[in-house]
């Protein structure tokens, strides 16, 4: 006879039907209320309490969470949260995410006897088709754009090592020597990845961009490539498909054409801009993406799956496997198609692919094309509203899904901060600050599947109304 006392987890398991019903009802209220949930809560989070000794069970835990923290959760999954580049979660993606926790599979070692790897490989293949990448690109799910950029640069670093006859994954970063990375408008995660990988933030050389643009000047890049031609190793070029300030994109086809005369690894940061491929009006912005050696795509942005989820594509899975292989007797790599544990930084991996698989299954390529087109339409609507007000100056046309704007008169950092704070504290919409060409500015990004043109109009009204709350120019 088992004399082990029952735990609260045992008791919760016995009443799972009741718990799941309660949680489903609660989640339904949250989701249906998203359109009007404040984009910035006014209630501060509670101070930490001591660790519970005996616990209170799942249902009481839900009540405790609701009382202590729920009101301080932002409406970031709602239609007028335009900060950063933030997607929502489609209903099907949420189903996939819930079931990811239900099945609780380790999507790393394929020898674990699970279909997790098959789900991931199918989702990778679908995303490759969705983004018009060729069969030469293999892919693996990672946690976000930062990790996707890191993996791509790690593979590129190993490619450089091949050029000088060392195996960096075994010999260490010192065996390679200085690395040169060329880019026009690199995202901050590129700097972070270079730091983590030991190549160093100072390895990055900024190449001139086109006038009043964030897109790299391809002629200037060609000159930079010629100047680095005499180095010990060829450089890495980081190109952009969608910059975070203005949604600008490099001329990927022209950059890829430089490979005819120059030897370099081409990494494309297409965290959200890669999805331009879905819409006829913007597909030309990512012409040439297929020529990249590695590609970053962030799925919790425009694919609208829950945090955290991204994918990393590369033409060199052999080098990827060399970098990330995990040598252990219990993680046998039998050859052929490697387990994902040998392709990504994580060995224990959440089955992130299931949420993507569900939303792609449920809505297909056409459904996600509509999501992208809604984002494009929202950006155009907000841009038009702001341009019509003489107090506002937009800093770039809406080339994709981002609107970048500032004050027409005296756009100091202090006045921009006051304006952005007033917008966000109103709770109707949320925008984030930036600086473009030395000018303090604000930016609004459209990537949530719920966001309509009407939401963009409401956001525009809130942004303009907030102008009345800031101090006038004293000049």
Structure notes:
It is a single chain. The chain is of the alpha/beta class and 475 residues long. Among the domains are: 8-33 and 41-65, no CATH class; 105-357, 3-Layer(aba) Sandwich (Aspartate Aminotransferase, domain 2). The chain is built from 15 helices and 11 strands. It has a 7-stranded mixed beta sheet, sandwiched between helices. It is globular. The model has no long low-confidence stretch (mean pLDDT 94).
Q: Helices, strands, pairings?
A:
Blueprint: H1 8-14, H2 16-32, H3 57-68, H4 91-103, H5 116-130, E1 138-142, H6 145-164, H7 168-171, E2 181-183, H8 188-196, E3 204-206, H9 218-227, E4 236-240, H10 252-257, E5 265-269, E6 294-298, H11 299-302, E7 310-314, H12 317-324, H13 353-387, E8 392-394, E9 402-407, H14 413-425, E10 432-436, E11 439-445, H15 453-465
Parallel strand pairs: 2-3, 2-4, 4-5, 5-6
Antiparallel strand pairs: 1-7, 6-7, 8-9, 9-11, 10-11
Kindly identify the CATH topology of the domain at 105-357: Aspartate Aminotransferase, domain 2
Gyration radius over CA? 24 Å
Overall morphology: globular
CATH uppermost class of the domain at 105-357: Alpha Beta
Q: What is the helix/strand order?
A: HHHHHEHHEHEHEHEEHEHHEEHEEH
With strands numbered from the N-terminus, the spatial order across the biggest sheet is: 1-7-6-5-4-2-3
Instruction: Provide the helix percentage.
Output: 25-40%
Mean pLDDT value: 94
Question: In what range is the share of β-strand residues?
Answer: 5-15%
Please tally the helical runs, counting DSSP H or I stretches of 4 or more residues. 15
Looking at CATH, the homologous superfamily of the domain at 105-357 is Type I PLP-dependent aspartate aminotransferase-like (Major domain)
Tell me how many strands there are.
Answer: 11
**Main beta-sheet annotation:** 7 strands, mixed
Q: Which regions contain 5 or more consecutive residues with pLDDT less than 50? A: none
In CATH, the architecture of the domain at 105-357 is 3-Layer(aba) Sandwich
The end-to-end span amounts to 85 Å
């Amino acid at each position: 006879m088992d004399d082990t006392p029952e735990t609260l987890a045992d008791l919760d398991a016995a009443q799972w039907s009741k718990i799941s019903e309660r949680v489903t009802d609660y989640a339904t209220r949250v989701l249906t209320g998203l359109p009007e949930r404040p984009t910035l809560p006014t209630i501060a989070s509670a101070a930490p309490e001591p660790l519970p000794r005996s616990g209170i069970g799942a249902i009481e835990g839900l009540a405790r969470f609701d009382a202590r923290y729920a009101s301080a959760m932002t409406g970031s999954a709602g239609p007028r949260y335009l900060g950063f580049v933030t997607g929502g979660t489609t209903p099907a993606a949420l189903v996939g995410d819930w079931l990811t926790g239900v099945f609780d599979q380790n999507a790393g070692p394929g020898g674990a006897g699970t279909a997790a790897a098959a789900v991931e490989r199918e989702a990778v293949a679908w995303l490759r088709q969705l983004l018009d990448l060729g069969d030469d690109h293999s892919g693996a799910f990672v946690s976000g754009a930062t990790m996707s950029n890191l993996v791509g640069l790690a593979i590129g670093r190993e490619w450089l090592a091949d050029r000088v006859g060392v195996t960096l994954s075994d010999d260490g970063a010192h065996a390679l020597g200085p690395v040169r990375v060329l880019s026009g408008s690199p995202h901050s995660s590129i700097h972070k990845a270079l730091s983590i990988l030991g190549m160093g933030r100072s390895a990055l050389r900024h190449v001139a961009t086109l006038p009043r643009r964030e897109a790299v000047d391809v002629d200037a890049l060609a000159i930079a490539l010629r100047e680095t031609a005499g180095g010990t190793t060829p450089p890495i070029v980081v190109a952009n498909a969608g910059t975070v300030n203005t949604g600008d994109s490099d001329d990927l086809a022209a950059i890829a054409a430089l490979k005819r005369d120059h030897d370099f690894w081409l990494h494309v940061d297409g965290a959200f801009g890669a999805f331009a491929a879905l819409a006829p009006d913007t597909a030309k912005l990512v012409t040439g993406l297929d020529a990249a050696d590695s590609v970053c795509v962030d799925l919790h942005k425009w694919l609208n799956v829950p945090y955290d989820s991204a994918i990393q594509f590369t033409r060199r899975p052999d080098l990827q496997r060399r970098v990330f292989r995990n040598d252990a007797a219990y993680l046998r790599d039998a050859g052929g198609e490697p387990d994902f544990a040998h392709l990504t930084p994580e060995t224990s991996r959440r089955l992130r692919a299931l949420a993507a698989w569900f939303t792609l299954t449920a809505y297909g390529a056409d459904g996600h094309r509509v999501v992208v087109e809604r984002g494009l339409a929202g950006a155009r609507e907000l841009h038009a509203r702001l341009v019509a007000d003489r107090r506002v100056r937009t800093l770039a046309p809406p080339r994709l899904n981002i609107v970048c704007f500032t004050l027409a008169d005296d756009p100091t950092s202090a006045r921009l901060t006051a304006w952005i704070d007033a917008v966000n504290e109103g709770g109707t919409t949320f925008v984030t600050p930036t600086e473009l060409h030395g000018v303090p500015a604000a930016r609004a990004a459209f990537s949530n599947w719920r966001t309509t043109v009407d939401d963009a109009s409401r956001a525009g009204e809130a942004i303009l109304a907030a102008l009345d709350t800031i101090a006038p120019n004293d000049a």
